[in-house]
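If you are new to this repository, start here. Below is one unmodified record pulled from the training split, so you can see the exact layout before writing a loader.
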Amino acid sequence: MPTDSRKNHAGLSDFSDFPSLEKGTVWLVGAGPGAPGLLTLLASHAIGSADVIIHDALVGPDILELAPDGCALIFAGKRGGMPSAEQDDICDLMIAEARKGHRVVRLKGGDPFMFGRGAEECLKLSAAGIPFRVVPGISAGIGGLAYAGIPVTHRTTNHSVLFLTGHDRQGVVPSAVDWNGVARAAPVIVMYMALKHLGDIADRLIAAGRSSSDPLAIVSNATLPDQKVRRGTLGTVRTMLRAQGIAPPAIIVAGPVVELGERIHWYRDRLRSNGNG
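And here is the target side for that same chain:
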């Protein structure tokens, strides 16, 4: 239960049923797709209980402001093409802070286990004998698309969805991917961290049999007030990227559900003015 300066952010009168973030412990916490209102109650409780928060680049300042007074905020972001913290150094930092007796939150955008290196960090903590807990978060591939009015499944279009990362450990298009299998595996493909290589990925999917007319949407800054949605097709990806100057972070989806977004798109006008809700 939060004590002294630690905050009850959820507006609940009683956190007694929540697990306690103990000294010398690390919690890997999913911060969701961006909007602070999409934090889970347990994530909010963790942030308000921390002595140290080691956070990714996609965790916004509105979320970090929920940290208690005196909490150390340590940036450990990894952004493609930019100077980034090494993963081994991040793991060593978590272990070192826990061994100092601190309550440590490793705060990650989206969900820790969805292309977020959360499993790697858990394995390192386990090997070091550091107690840890995983607090799942809303993934951008579901929650971010929902803010664009795009459902990842719909009974009349698809009963399956495939989640794909756009680069491997070397920062290039994953070479181990069976593109023929991916192209046929599901009507809907959701792509994370794929903007840089999207043209090459689209070419590979089309070469593997995917239709060039497959609807595609790029949702940048999902769930935030400056969210933008660009729509096209697999075959027009390169034109979209050249013409519209799209910058990360972005979540990308291809498949028939994209067309539903034009009718379901709700995050606009007065609702968007609520911004972080």
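Two things worth knowing about this chain: Residues 1-5 have pLDDT under 50 and may be disordered. The first helix runs from residue 41 to 47.
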